[in-house]
């Protein structure tokens, strides 16, 4: 008699036998979702336990395991390792620096020293939204970091779905915590000179002990002149700048000094030939005062092997984090406690100042181009601090005034 054909998702008769080791072995055939019948086995200390283990497996079994890259019994750590490996090789994927940030983010839910409910050892089949939420809650991270961790997990679990290791994404069901929308303000133009003086005083060691920080004032001036990201500015080379017209344009009245943003310095101090976005590689016109600063600097600077405009005493690129840390130190000094404009100053503060001024003189699209954004909405939402302007449309609304016959008395306010 022919063996009865199994329906998809069902299993046949379970047979059990005792092994030489004394444990029991249970096995049965199961028809997976791809229509292929496969045999599965489970062991147990007794016959009933072996049978129960096999039945429990069939309850959680999701069918075929796709291309074999991931399976339900792989751990969350396995999943993230594979996801990062694929992201490193993906064309047009996140940069190495961005992936480094992602790795540092997810450690908050993987490492036992950061959360009481680490996710790393959980098998994919056992991960539920409440388990992820417990790991996040136990880590005690900020709403912004929680949002970033959840985003990485969503993308990683989506890959697990693609490889048929799970049927649904448990991370998408984890409630997201609203991130406070505190729009950071630019440095007001009227306060720029006071901020400049404070930075120069600190850099010249007038307000502290220790060596001078000779580059910091010029770095700040160039941030104000261009609105560049700090990593972009520190990656600037003399070959990226045109301070004098080339021979073919020497008599051209429309020539002006300019530079080309051609890369960035990562948080680890390495220069790379790409930007944060595809719009980051861009030309920027230089105001005359910034061009004069660069000419003066080029004459005074000893040529270096990196062709760097800003270089450390050791002949290396400046770290963006070092510059950020120096500005943070200055604004915490008691000497400048009364200078309100300095209290929130960071390299990005000057970027917002530039965006706001360009928006006022030109428009938001011009600010977007200067800053190297891919979307005008990003520029408007996060960088431009527009003054309140009350539009005067009364010529239209005055025509809607009630007629004399509808007026019951004197006009209010007259």
**How confident overall, as mean pLDDT?**
85
- Helical stretch tally: 14
- Name of the CATH homologous superfamily of the largest domain: Intergrase catalytic core
CATH architecture of the largest domain: Orthogonal Bundle
Oligomer category:
single chain
Instruction: Write out the strand line-up for the largest beta sheet, numbering strands in chain order.
Output: 1-2-3
- Main β-sheet description: 3 strands, antiparallel
- Tally of structural domains: 3
**CATH fold field value of the largest domain:** hpI Integrase, Chain A
Number of strands: 8
Low-confidence residue ranges: none
Span from first to last CA?
A: 104 Å
Top-tier CATH class of the largest domain: Mainly Alpha
Secondary-structure element order, as H and E?
Answer: EEEHHHHHHHHEEEEEHHHHHH
Helical content class? 25-40%
Structure summarized in a few sentences:
GO terms for molecular function: DNA binding. This protein has 414 residues and is mostly helical.
Describe this entry's structure for a reader.
Pfam families: Phage_integrase. Belongs to the 'phage' integrase family. The chain has 414 residues and is mainly α. Helix content is 39%, strand content 8%. It has three domains: 15-60, no CATH class; 76-162, no CATH class; 189-382, hpI Integrase, Chain A (Orthogonal Bundle), CATH 1.10.443.10. The protein has helices at 47-60, 76-89, 96-110, 129-139, 143-162, 192-203, 216-226, 230-234, 288-300, 320-331, 347-361, 364-371, 376-382, 394-397, and strands at 15-18, 24-31, 37-44, 241-242, 258-261, 264-265, 271-272, 282-285. Strand 2 (24-31) and strand 3 form a beta hairpin.
């Amino acid at each position: 008699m022919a063996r009865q054909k199994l329906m998809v998702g069902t299993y046949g008769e379970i047979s059990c036998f005792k092994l030489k080791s004394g444990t029991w072995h249970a096995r049965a055939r199961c028809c997976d979702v791809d229509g292929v019948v496969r045999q599965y086995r489970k062991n147990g200390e007794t016959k009933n336990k072996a049978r129960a283990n096999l039945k429990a497996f069939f309850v959680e079994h999701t069918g075929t395991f796709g291309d074999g890259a991931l399976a339900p019994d792989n751990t969350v750590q396995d999943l993230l390792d594979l996801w990062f490996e694929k992201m490193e090789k993906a064309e047009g994927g996140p940069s190495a620096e961005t992936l480094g940030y992602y790795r540092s983010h997810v450690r908050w839910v993987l490492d036992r020293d950061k959360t009481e409910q680490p996710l790393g050892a959980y098998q994919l089949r056992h991960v539920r939204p409440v388990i992820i939420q417990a790991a996040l809650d136990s880590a005690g991270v900020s709403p912004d970091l929680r949002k970033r961790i959840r985003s990485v997990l969503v993308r990683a679990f989506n890959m697990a779905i693609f490889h048929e290791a799970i049927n649904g994404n448990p991370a998408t069901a984890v409630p997201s915590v609203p991130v406070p929308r505190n729009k950071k303000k630019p440095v007001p133009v009227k306060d720029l000179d006071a901020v400049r003086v404070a930075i120069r005083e600190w850099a010249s060691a007038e307000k502290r002990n220790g060596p001078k920080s000779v580059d910091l004032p010029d770095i700040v001036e160039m941030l104000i002149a261009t609105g560049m990201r700090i990593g972009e500015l520190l990656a600037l080379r003399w070959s990226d700048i045109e301070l004098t017209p080339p021979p073919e344009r020497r008599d051209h009245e429309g020539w002006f000094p300019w530079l080309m943003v051609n890369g960035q310095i990562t948080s680890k101090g390495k220069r790379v030939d790409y930007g944060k976005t595809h719009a980051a590689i861009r030309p920027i016109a230089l105001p005359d005062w910034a061009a004069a600063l660069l000419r003066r600097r080029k004459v005074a600077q000893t040529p270096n092997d990196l062709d760097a405009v800003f270089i450390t005493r050791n002949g290396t690129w400046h770290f963006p984090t070092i510059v950020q840390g120096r500005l943070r130190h200055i604004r915490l000094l008691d000497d400048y406690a009364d200078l309100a404009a300095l209290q929130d100053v960071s390299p990005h503060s000057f970027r917002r100042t530039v965006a706001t001024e360009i928006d006022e003189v030109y428009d938001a699209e011009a600010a977007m181009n200067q800053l190297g954004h891919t979307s005008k909405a990003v520029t408007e939402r996060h960088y431009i601090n527009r003054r309140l302007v009350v539009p005067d449309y009364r010529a239209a609304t005055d025509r809607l005034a009630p007629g004399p016959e509808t007026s019951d008395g004197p006009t209010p306010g007259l």
